[in-house]
Design goal:
CATH class of the largest domain: Alpha Beta
Radius of gyration: 21 Å
Oligomer: single chain
CATH architecture of the largest domain: 3-Layer(aba) Sandwich
Number of strands: 12
Length: 271
């Protein structure tokens, strides 16, 4: 169904605008995506799109998005046209692409998460990471590396914020995500499903490429400023490190995660 919204007081418009805030995303269980690429990814991966918004002038340029628009209509998704002013107020980007949507957050149970049939049995654990760019990049890399999924410990940033959603580039539609309340709870799950726990730390650790990363590991990446919490370090089966020059203190969290995940891919393919 196609409708036109002409007022910022419209109930649907106001509820969508609220999704810019984390508390409203949590209450509604929904988040926003922007641009034709993410809309196409959402449809291809059968994400639950609840509504789509188009800038009014896009109606005149419909041929540019005709295939996408047709698919949206075939799915019986509500479509709303907005003035440029109303549309831009909804957007988080500086140069909006004229189309955006609202998606229901995926739900992943313990059973579904740990029994996913993905290229590797490795799980990534994020311990209180905060930077949206890092979070999105790490999720995108975990998806590309075929990881079984990502566990987000309590205190980690909101992965459904607009910047993370953009950085993840569609990974949220494919990558299983499981939320835990503490390091202790996470360790219990990893032990239950026989994952070998690897913590990244500089102290008393093995060099990462001398460590078996092929399968059934729970790879923990820590907070950008404080690293991995003591509970994870104490509960780890192995601690690993990425060698660096003496005058370099640490690597960016997303870079470190990418190095380790693709070392796991390399080892698996070599084996």
């Amino acid at each position: 169904m196609i409708k036109i919204i002409q007022s910022a007081d419209n109930a649907i418009y106001k509820s969508t605008l609220g999704l810019q805030q984390k508390k409203h995303r949590e209450i509604s269980g929904q988040y926003m995506i922007e641009g034709p690429n993410l809309l196409r990814e959402a449809l291809e991966n059968k994400a639950e799109l609840t509504r789509v918004f188009l800038r009014e002038e896009m109606n005149k340029q419909q041929s540019e998005l005709s295939d996408l628009f047709e698919e949206i209509q075939n799915r019986d998704i509500d479509v709303f046209f907005l003035s440029q002013k109303l549309f831009e107020k909804l957007c988080d980007t500086k140069t909006p692409q004229g189309i955006m949507g609202v998606v229901k957050k995926p739900q992943c149970s313990e059973k579904n998460f740990f029994h996913q049939a993905r290229p590797t049995s490795n799980v990534l654990v994020l311990d209180r990471l905060q930077d949206p760019g890092n979070l999105g990049t790490i999720l995108r890399t975990a998806d590309a590396a075929g990881f079984q999924g990502v566990i987000l410990c309590k205190g980690t940033g909101d992965i459904f914020s607009p910047k993370v959603v953009r950085s993840a580039a569609g990974a949220l539609f494919r990558l299983p995500i499981f939320f835990t309340n503490s390091a202790e709870e996470t360790i219990r799950y990893l032990r239950k499903y026989k994952k070998r726990i690897l913590a990244t730390t500089l102290q008393n650790s093995q060099i990462y490429y001398e460590t078996d990363l092929c399968e059934n590991i729970g790879l923990i990446i820590g907070n950008e400023g404080n690293g991995i919490c003591k509970e994870f370090i104490d509960g780890a089966d192995v601690t690993i490190r990425i060698p660096m020059m003496d005058n370099v203190e640490s690597l960016n969290a997303a870079v470190a995660a990418g190095i380790l995940m693709y070392e796991a891919v390399r080892q698996k393919e070599q084996r």
